[in-house]
Amino acid sequence: RQSPVEIRSEEAQHDPALPPWFASYDPGAAKSILNNGRTCRVVFDDTFDRSVLRGGPVQGAYRLRQLHFHWGSSDDHGSEHIIDGVKHAAELHMVHWNPKHGNFAGALKQRDGVAVVGIFLQVGNTPKPELKRILEEIDTVKTKGKEAPFHHFDPSILFPKSRDYWTYEGSFTTPPCEECITWILLREPIVVSPDQMAKLRSLSMNAENEPFCPLVDNWRPPQPLKGRVLRASFK
Asked: Do you know which Pfam families this protein is assigned to (predicted)?
């Protein structure tokens, strides 16, 4: 059950029983932003049901733990999931875990342990004002290992207008690629400007005292479906 996968919309099955999903996020839960050498990540307080995802293909409330990005070295690729052959410039992942498994480490061992909302970033003329806050902080975490405080941020401002989604059972896309994720991939991308994409590419995968090495192409190629069914909440 590895991820990402290529979604062919004619093969995705419309499931009228799939309910809509909801997120209620507390802006006060945002804690910090960091560059771990593999991605840019924003971390949230998940010690109680403060910022949660409900509905859609999951049962109960899943707690928001972090969000991060995958992007390419140019605007024509970078997303992990591919839709009908189309690669987007980047993909944003909002990672939630199921508190019924005790803690995040416990959730990683369960099929229903984690739910990730995936949002595609498509390059257009208009910058996404909601992304500005994250990108403004990038200069403070330019190099690997840098972390900076990041407070009062409501990540739901990053959602597109449409809540239509595809869903399937998959995995993390970074080692050890635990197969514990229910994916909720949003059909509608959000539009970002070329400058905003360039900002992501200005991060370094090396530490401060090492030569600058651009952090780009941190995406994993698509994995075989192996009989898994992709369901769609829309026709």
From this structure: Carb_anhydrase (PF00194)
